[in-house]
Amino acid sequence: MNRAPRQIPRVRIRPATRADVETLARFSAAMARETEGLTLDGARLRAGTRALFDQPARGFYLVAEQKNGAGREVVGQLMVTYEWSDWRNATFWWIQSVYVPPAWRRKGVYRRMHAHVLDLARQHREVCGIRLYVERSNRIAQTAYRRAGLHPSAYRVYEEDFVLTQRLGPRRPPRKGGRKEGP
Questions:
Q1: What distance in Å separates the CA atoms of residue 31 and residue 53, rounded to the nearest whole number?
Q2: Taking Cα atoms as reference points, which of 6, 107, 1 lies closest to residue 64?
Q3: Which residue, 114, 105, 102, 104, is CA-closest to 62?
Q4: What is the rounded CA–CA span in Å between residue 123 and residue 102?
Q5: What percent of the chain has pLDDT over 70?
Q6: Exposed, middle or buried: residue 163 (CB in 10 Å: 0-12, 13-18, 19+)?
Q7: Least crowded by CB within 10 Å, which of 18, 32, 40, 50?
Q8: For residue 19, is pLDDT > 80?
Q9: Domain parsing of the chain, residue ranges
Q10: Contact 89, 108 (CB under 8 A)
Q11: In this predicted structure, what is the pLDDT of residue 48?
């Protein structure tokens, strides 16, 4: 269901640059805290953010900007990475690291970024679709993604995380009624 948001800010979507690294890392850290209760290692996160600019074959970031007085303020981010599909002989674009600060949520910022990704993807014949994953209990994000036109996949994501699992210890199934852990 594609409903129009109540308020559509006049945001500009643009490719992120190295000048955005601190904002991107700050937003990613905020997302990890909000969605999974994780405190990420700041130096590792900044290095991982810079790595995408060092090796563009890994993917790219987009940011949403809003005019703020004489300057511009970043009001949203997302990252796109690539997954080859032998079945389709084409590439899926994975949307990751989505973050919109609380003051800008429910105003169509993500929807604008999503539409921009779709437009870009459709310009590339080697792209067969877009995907994203979302933490199971994050119903608000799931609603936003459905409104943008995405549908739940038939697949579940399984992982063995060599970085965060070491810091956190093995993940255990959530207790009934407790917070569920996600990817």
A1: 21
A2: 107
A3: 114
A4: 32
A5: 85
A6: exposed
A7: 18
A8: yes
A9: 11-168
A10: no
A11: 97
